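Long-time lurker, first post. I've been practising inverse folding by hand and with some scripts of my own, and I keep getting stuck on stretches where the structure tokens seem ambiguous. Below is the full token string for one chain I'm working on. Before anyone asks, I'm not after the true native sequence, just a reasonable design that respects the backbone. If someone could post their per-position residues I'd love to compare against what I wrote down in my notebook.
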């Protein structure tokens, strides 16, 4: 069991941002599901999942403000998380091809925030939703995933994806259909979810257009993440005694870092070959420059 945990931790640390988001979402789902099963077996009826879901009412949000962020990592059932993670994987890999891991991390959060805020605004503005404000909650990564999809489509609208039974479809048409479906279902049984999707789509469009003009709307989110990551990860103290690390452990860490760097360079070179130097981000250009100095 210890080896499995160690291997999973290693894969998480060496993985790209899509892999890390998949691990986080699946891990939270397994934890909450197992806890729910345990409470049911103990005949304890407590809606603990509600503390991670985003409420429709502003008064309720004041009692659990963190839920505007946590809801985008919480899922209701297996099918809910399965489809969201599949879409995250497919669109996330395309997004990384045209932008970067750091931008994807920021946009995932930005899309979720915009989706949650639009969801709350709609439930408190439109009379149709007012009877349900006190009992409605939002959960799932759909708004974040649609933000990533729309941003990729705005960046490369004619990029083709292969769909089962439909064949090759341009990305702009695929995302347009997804957005139109959410608009048409904005008054359905899952109205809140579809409205949140539209908020995520707006965030993705905002990001792509602003990025094209030289502005990154996700920069502040990544600065906040860096701040808390620096606070939460303790600094390593130098040992008082000289410690000799095993040669195999050192070789493993070195090879893992080298393999991760080589995979990133291969991805950048493939992007350079297909789309040209102008399609590279500043981080990707710097990575190529740094790698050229090592040769």
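-- Answer (accepted) --
I ran through it position by position. Result:
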């Amino acid at each position: 069991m210890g080896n499995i945990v160690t291997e999973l931790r290693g894969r998480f640390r060496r993985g790209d941002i899509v892999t890390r988001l998949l691990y986080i979402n699946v891990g939270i789902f397994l934890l909450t599901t197992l806890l729910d099963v345990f409470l049911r077996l103990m005949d304890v009826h407590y809606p603990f999942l509600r503390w991670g879901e985003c409420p429709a009412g502003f008064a309720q949000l004041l009692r659990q403000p963190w839920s505007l962020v946590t809801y985008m990592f919480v899922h209701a059932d297996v099918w809910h998380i399965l489809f969201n993670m599949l879409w995250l994987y497919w669109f996330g890999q395309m997004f990384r091809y045209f932008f970067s891991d750091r931008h994807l991390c920021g946009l995932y959060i930005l899309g979720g925030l915009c989706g949650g805020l639009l969801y709350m605004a709609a439930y408190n503005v439109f009379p149709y939703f007012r009877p349900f404000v006190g009992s409605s909650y939002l959960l799932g990564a759909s708004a974040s995933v649609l933000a990533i999809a729309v941003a990729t489509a705005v960046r490369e609208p004619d990029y083709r994806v292969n769909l089962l039974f439909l064949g090759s479809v341009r990305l702009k048409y695929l995302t347009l259909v997804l957005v139109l479906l959410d608009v048409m279902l904005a008054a359905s049984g899952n109205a809140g979810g579809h409205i949140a999707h539209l908020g995520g789509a707006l965030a993705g469009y905002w990001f792509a257009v602003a990025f094209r003009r030289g502005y990154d709307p996700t920069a502040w989110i990544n600065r906040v993440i860096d701040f808390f990551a620096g606070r939460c990860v303790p600094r390593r103290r130098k040992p008082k005694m000289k410690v000799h690390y095993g040669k195999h452990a050192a070789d493993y860490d070195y090879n893992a870092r080298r393999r991760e760097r080589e995979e990133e360079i291969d991805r950048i070179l493939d992007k350079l070959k297909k789309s040209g130097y102008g399609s590279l981000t500043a981080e990707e250009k710097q990575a190529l420059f740094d790698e050229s100095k090592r040769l």
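A couple of notes from the structure itself: Residues 243-249 have pLDDT under 50 and may be disordered. The longest strand covers residues 160-163. Happy to go over any region you disagree with.
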